[in-house]
Amino acid sequence: MAQRKAGVIVNIGSVVGEIATPWNGVYCASKAAVHSLSEVLHMECKPFNISVVHVAAGGTKSNLASNAANLFSLPSDSLYSVFLPNILQRLHASQASNSMPNDAFAKEVVSKSLRKTPPRYITLGASSGLFSFSNGYPGGSFFSLYGKYTPRSAEISLKSLRIKLRFV
Questions:
Q1: Predicted TM-score of the model (pTM)
Q2: Number of other CB atoms surrounding residue 143 within 10 Å
Q3: For a disulfide at 78, which of 6, 14, 74, 115, Cβ 3.0-4.6 Å?
């Protein structure tokens, strides 16, 4: 690509690389690294006329959750045993009924990436718009305040949200 002075690099990340979600730390960190790498490559490849597209995927149909669920276990004395239902809920969150079929996802990524001037950033898939909204939330992740994946009740979480918003 550098010799031809033309090309496109497409990195597949995730919305959770920008907005961390509980019970998903290693995955969030790895996708944050992909996002950072995309930013660096954009700067380093620009002199060679090589475009870099970062794709922040939302919920997209895949076998990732079912494969991971088959391998997942907690030690019987784990401090996180009480959170097991929340961990499993998070594990399957990207596979909701509104998740984007993987063939439609691939078709859209390829179509946008092959444009004369490809976008630097693409986000698509289920809940990607919500993550884009919360990315601009001052003071950290909206999800940490909302408490969706924690065992707190919705009433307590929403009360915390109101208090936080009052001071922002």
A1: 0.75
A2: 19
A3: 74
